[in-house]
Amino acid sequence: MEIFVNGAARQLPNDLADPGLPLLWALRDLLGLTGTKFGCGVAACGACTVHVDGAAVRSCTLPIGKLEGRRVVTIEALGSADKPHPLQRAWVEHQVPQCGYCQSGILMAAAALLARTRRPSDAEIDAAIDNVCRCGTVPRLRAAIRAAAATMS
Fold it and tell me: Are 50 and 74 in contact (CB under 8 A)?
């Protein structure tokens, strides 16, 4: 089976790529892309958020059999050490993460938000970022998203 991930066609081993396999496990176990995290396994927490055709989706419940012709982007392709995404820069500047476990999913949800809404309000941020984070950094998260939005406009 072949899926399109981070700008490239990736071949999954046929003996391991059951169409019902959740995308999360294909990314982590078959492709070695471990930036996407397992949290709850029921699409509730958002730690596994990736983009599919530009939309933020929970990868823990999305079967790879539903990805034919679709494009997947993971946190590994959001930015790089040499050229971080504006959100990644803002995350550091505003000291958003504490433990960091949920951050890749939140960054992916925030990137999808900014791709469709250039200057989101706090209400739009709260609606789009429904990921679970127990660190309590929501005020810094909002500030970082607003800062990134300002640099992207």
Answer: yes
